[in-house]
Amino acid sequence: MKNQRIKRTALMLLLAGLFPVVSCNKEYINPSAASVPSVTTSPDALMTLCAGLQRRFTIGRQSPLYCAPIGGAYSVYALYTLNIGNTTEKELETGKGAITLNNSVVTQMWTQCLLTRVEAETVLDNLNVAADAGDKVGLKAYASIFYALSMGTLVQFYEQIPLVTEDNAAFSPRAEALKKAIALLEAVDADLTTTAPSTKFLGKVPPGIDVKNTVKALLARYYNIQSMITGTYDPAIGNKAIASAAAASRLIKSEFRFSTATTNPLGEWNFTVNVFGAIDSTLGLRNGLAPVPAATDPRVGFYISRTGPTTYPLKAFALNTTANYPVYLPGEMDLIAAENYARQNMFPQAKTALDIVRTKTTDIYGIGAAQPAYSGAMTQPALLTDIYKQRRLELFLCGQELEDSRRFGRPGPNQPGEERNRNFYPYPLIERDNNPVTPPDPAI
Questions:
Q1: Could you please report the per-residue DSSP string of 11-32?
Q2: Fewer CB near the terminus (10 Å): N or C of the chain?
Q3: Does some domain include residue 439?
Q4: CA-CA distance, 332 to 380, in Å (whole number)?
Q5: Structural domain tally of the chain?
Q6: pLDDT tens column, 245-257
Q7: Taking Cα atoms as reference points, which of 184, 60, 76, 52 lies closest to residue 418?
Q8: CB neighbours (10 Å) of residue 113?
Q9: What pLDDT digit, counting tens, does each position of 81-107 carry?
Q10: Looking at the domain assignment, is residue 202 inside a domain?
Q11: 371 lies in a domain?
């Protein structure tokens, strides 16, 4: 009875457009111009719901676009909290047992990703209402992208995730959650080879996301994670990551766009509220990975500035409230290829892909390393170490830092030379209070 009362109350708040406070509700429909009864019967209403997916995922401090980059960067000691009164961020900075079960980043990342998934499933479950092929593939692609982004985010921070939306939902290993997200992307990737989203659909959703290239890039990203998710490398999946990375354009931007009306949450809390900054001039890189001096790598100056002896405000995609944020970066695709070639002991190919990132002086976002070509040992450990370093410098504040640290076998919490302060996040208190089958929290 207690669970049902809490869920009914949360639903009322959600439908009123207030701050969401519940993790998973099977009745939830995103409040929007579409009425609840019409959402599943009208193509236009489904398009409106698709537009709402992006808003939920990107707008506000509760959004995954705030929580994942902040959580990832804090987890690898890349950020510093400027005001210790911001207890949520300070807990993440300290990590380990300091992260409480009601930490708002832990809670809201979980809540908003699961709600995004519910809304994406609503679209995917009702594609038959769209008679036009272009409308249908647009709906399917957009919903699949945000389903994958939401579950792909949770996979990187939590060991287990509920895959169904119901009372007392069972939890599944994160590998299963990732597998389902990839399956949706694979299905729509096949559709997009013959059918493009309609002009009508593209006019109904926010501009900025290039659907076809985003699907390819997300497949590359999540194949890359999947290839090592069991702890043993799977070369067949790694080859899929290489192929998808090659297919994602380096010359077309795909980004979340912001304005004075719909603001960038990272920019708001960096520029306006001044909550955090980079921990040091080398983005927190440790154990000999930092560029020396930092100024020799232009990416440091691209991502941060220096306003005092120990003060490093963020720039680039967190510069201000209207800064756009990329869904993927060109360098990410090349580093995915380099990593998988290295794991397969294809060292010349790994070096070629790695050098694309090391030697480029700019890209469509203005990111350039301007470094000499790789000259280290042609061994798997040496190449993977440099690939990890390049990911930290190239993809700063991308939300993938914690997953990267684990996948590359960097020193974990309480190990000599530790480079991360958690392995996985604890499950939010709101989930534990409402779901009796919530697993025990993972070890720090």
A1: HHHHHTT-----S--TT----S
A2: N
A3: no
A4: 19
A5: 1
A6: 999 999 999 999 9
A7: 76
A8: 29
A9: 998 889 999 999 999 999 999 999 999
A10: yes
A11: yes
